[in-house]
Structures are given as structure tokens and as C-alpha cells.
Input
Amino acid sequence: MQELIQFIELDKPTNIYGSCVFVHQARQKFLVASCCQVSCISATELKGEGIHFKSEEFSLPFKPNEHNIISIDAFQPTSISIPGSVPFGSYFYGVSGGKIGVASMALSQVIGRSSVVGICGVKKSQTQSTVTGYLSIHGYTSTQETSIARICNDFQLIELPYTPFFITHLPLSLPQGQGENGRGTTAFLIFGSDECVHMYLPTSHKGDYQELVILPYFPELTRPSPYNQSPLPTPSTSPVMKSEFAYLSQNGVRLRLCALGCQNGLVFLTIVDEDSKELVSGSHFMMDGPVSSLHFYSPPHPVKFFSPYAHSQIQLKEKSDNIHLLVCSTVGCAVVFCDVINKGLQQAPIPLPHSDGFDSITCSAITDFDLDGKLEILIGTYGQE
Output
């Protein structure tokens, strides 16, 4: 097992929403956004020298003094699973301040077209007196052979009447005959300062994106329904800071799990029937502070069901193994809720030992880090420990 950790300097710092995995020319890369610039981290295996990481910087077609990037996300329009491959790839990326830490265990290849990149930010008016949110979508007409520099300039700009916080994506089931090969498409979801979730889809043959009503597709992300019809508080209680989704099948029924972490410490968990879009169950729990990280997992195996940060297609988990939820807060300790399908969040969570012995928790990851066949939970803190 070859281990390598390399630090790459950034000209300007980023934030917890400013990075994502990016697939380009059948290789997995890493994008880090800061202000009006994007850095692309890629790996090259040199004969006799092991794996080397390099960084390329690309400027977006925006004025640096007027635009500020808040969050970035990417997905593959058509993605093909490789049997036996690691769902989250073979690299572990960490961003802290103005440095990127990259740890490598092995090289893997991802098959598919070049990713579509969504960037959320704010721009100042010419008088510098007002600030407007925006969504720029890059590469939606590009092919796998298109250079990253050209992808940065192949974009659609959408003005937003709210300040965007973070952007993610989810697969979307469409009626027969719609979407790619009649199977569906992928939607960008934006969580904003208006305490709502906004969905953007390509709605024309040119691939232009527009905002669509989210209720028919993701009822658990709307307000006030269905929360006012369930034991859950309304999601407008506080802005959502983190989200995590998973798909699985249980007794022939396709289910979608959704976990939302809010600024005031509230954690929502909902289970929705993927076909009928009906709410199956819902519960909530209050943490000590803002929620900084959420992860579904099912030990002792790596996550086999869908994560928005892995492949873009739905992957179903056929066995009814227990699924747990890791929740990290910036105040207090990290906790685990066990068997959330049957127990929800109406249970006493298990605190992770010593997770409150440092300063604020900013991130977490669940993976087989030492390649021993068992999952490890990694916790990152503001103090870089």
C-alpha cells in the first residue's frame, strides 16, 4: 500500500462548500473554488516515482472584484458504475484555510462524460451598494474531450433572488420517454438564505437550466408540506447547512432517505416512497450547535447506496442491513443514530468518544481509510486535528 500526502497552496482561502469531485476525460479530479477562481487538482502516476498531484488554476469569465464564489458542485450526465470499484474514489481530499491536503491509496478510473459544474455565488452591483445571488452552470454542452478552460467559459448564468448557501445534486425520476434514454436526469438543488430549497433542471433541447417546482419530485424538501402534516417542525425553522441523501429498496419498495442539518442544530430525517413520493416517516433531533456534517453508512461494508458526492445514478441496496446516520455539530460531540430506518431519530444517539475534546468539528468522512476491510469514521476540526 502506497501512502502519499501532498499539500498544495491556494492563493485565497475557500470554505466548507467550496470543493467537489469532478470527472474529466475519464479521470477523477478535484475542484476547489476561491473568490472568482477555480483550482483543479489531478493525479499522475509517474514510473518509479509513485503518484504525483498537480494543481491547475482557471479563471472564470467574471470580474474578480464583483463576484465571490460561495459553493460548487459537479456531476456526470451519464455515469457508468464499475463493479468492484470504490464508490467514493481512491483519493481523500481535505481543504483547510489556504491549503489542500491530498492523500492517495490507489488509482481508479471513472467512465463517463465530462461533469457538469454548478457554481453559486454573489455579485456586487456597479455601485457596490447591493449584492445579488447567482447560479452559473458550466459544461452542460461540453463533451469529454473539451478542455477545462473551455468548460469554464461554456456556461449559463442565472440570477437568484436570494443568497445561495450550498449546492448539491440528486437523480430525478421522470415519466417514461423523458430524460436521458428515458431513465431520468439529474437536478441541481440549492439551499438558500430564504430557507427554501430550489431545484434547477435542463428543460430544453439546448440543455438550458430553469427552476422548476420542487413539490412533485421532492416533497420532503418543501414547506410547509409535508412537515405540517407530520410530527416534524416546519423546515423554515432555520436555514439548512448540510444535507445527505440515500436510496435503497426494502421489500420491493424503493425508498429515499433524506437527512437535513440546520443552523440552529435541528436535524431532520425523512423517508419517502420514491415511486409514489409519499412521506413514509419523519423525525427530528436537536444538536447543541449548527450541524456541520452528515453521513449515512452501513457497516462493515462501504456505502453502496447513492450519495450526491459519488456517482450520479441511483444505486439500490437490496439487503435490509441496518443504516446508521453520523451527525457532527460545531458545538459539542459527534453522534451516531443507529438503524434509522426503523428507529428514526427518536432514540438516544451514541456519542463518539473524545469527539468533543477538540475545538469545532468542521467535517467528517466514513471510508476504509487503512484498507483493512472495515469502515473508519474520520472527524476534522477547525484546529486541523
